[in-house]
Amino acid sequence: MPTFHLLNFGCRASQADGASIKLQLLTSGLAETSRAEDCQIAVLNTCTVTSAADAEVRQVIRRIHRSNPQCRIMVTGCYAQRAWTAIAELPGVEWVVGNSHKHLIAEVLRGEKESEVRSRKSEELDSGIGFQDSGDRQDSSLVLIEPGNPDDHGRHQAANLRQVSSPEPLIPDRGSRATILVGEIAEEFHYAPVFPDDMTRPTLKIQDGCNAQCSFCIIPEVRGPSRSLAPETVISQVQELERRGYQEIVLSGINLGSYGKDMDRRLTFLDLLDRILHETSISRIRISSIEPMDVTPELIRLVASEPRMARHFHIPLQSGCDRTLRAMNRRYWVSHYADRVAAVHEQIPNCGIGADVMVGFPGETDEDHRISVKFMDSLPFTYLHVFPYSSRPGTPAAERGGHLNGRIVHERGQEIRDMIKRKRVAFLETQIGLELSAVTLAEEEDGARVALSTNYLKLLLPEAGVAPNSIVNVKVGRAYGGVLYGYAGLSPATCSSIEVQG
Known about the structure:
The protein is built from 15 helices and 23 strands. It is an alpha/beta fold. The chain has three domains: 3-181, Response regulator (Rossmann fold, 3-Layer(aba) Sandwich), CATH 3.40.50; 203-429, tm_1862 like domain (pyruvate-formate lyase- activating enzyme, Alpha-Beta Horseshoe), CATH 3.80.30; 431-495, CATH 2.40.50.140. The strands form six sheets. Strands 2-1-3-4-5-10-8-9 form an eight-stranded mixed beta sheet, with helices on both faces. The chain has a five-stranded mixed barrel with strand order 19-20-21-23-22. The longest helix is centred in the C-terminal third of the chain and has 25 residues, at 406-430.
């Protein structure tokens, strides 16, 4: 039985894709191994949101090839969709499968005949799927990459492509050529039954793609247009997770606020949440990330009034400076963002509130940065994800002048991290003595069960016998090292006596 090892990179939506890929492989008769060093086939489900993400994938490919030269490597996901030519040149890579065709991964690895896949691709071409080449659509046959002249975009290599005409299985002979399946993203939601790869907090991807045109972002190109999973399918999948005993699910997507608009302009993400709450009994629903324009008064009221909704909003900010937001082509002003966060904080005072923040956007001045930091410091954030601007070829921002020195970008990022660390320590102190609803996770640290609170805080429960995948009320007794300590169901007085080592 062929063996595989799957590695996932990137966001929650990508993790959900990885779980779907694993289901494909397992149901196709492949056996999973725990280490890439021991497998016959390594599948890398990649991210390309930054150059660092690309570099990490290349490093992992080289490491796998060094440690396991016989391993045959498949690269799929966002990086494969964007830079298939360059990836195909890497040693050990035998398949490059873009987001456009990752629903066919199992068929490729089963060795389905090229003629059978050609027939399937012909049908898909009729619905808008093709192969990328010089900007034009090719016919439905597979292509192989010839060595040489890697191009980061992979769109100008027509001279280096040849069609597969042999009726042999798709798995190619070993050598320097790689089979490539990359095409336009279809305007449909390629759905696979949910297969939780997380023992306690499965991710359900309900939306993919994005129609926004942020000047720095490559995601619309590699993920395609916004498209949604049908509400009836979402409900059935939540019910299935409930039957399996899961207590918390995470609803994810590339742009959750656009959910439903591709199916019915009157259908909204809020409508879907209402249906999940009324048609299922899942204990907790967490929203992974949602744009500030979509944090509506109605959504805030729902989270505030419904105990089954996690008290947690992750609202991407990117910059706290209007001038920078305009250059980024973001669709809000800082005043709009502040109003939404203020409404959340007012109606849900103990809510976990986080954001993505970019530093070093081209043309960002010292004054722009100062304004941004001051704005962030004024808001009740409980955490921030801070990352440096990364130039993505083909995006408008990449063509802008004023790209900043790496040292300046690092210093600006560190200033924001120091600021949010101070704010987070202060927030954790306010939790002492409170009772927080939390889901227990599969992990343990120093013999203590790890749990995640409704407001997105890490908890350690030293008591014995606390099982994973349970919703518990935790009395918080101590904050130490960025972590809360408490006991499930005990009084604040008892919790205050918890001993913390260190």
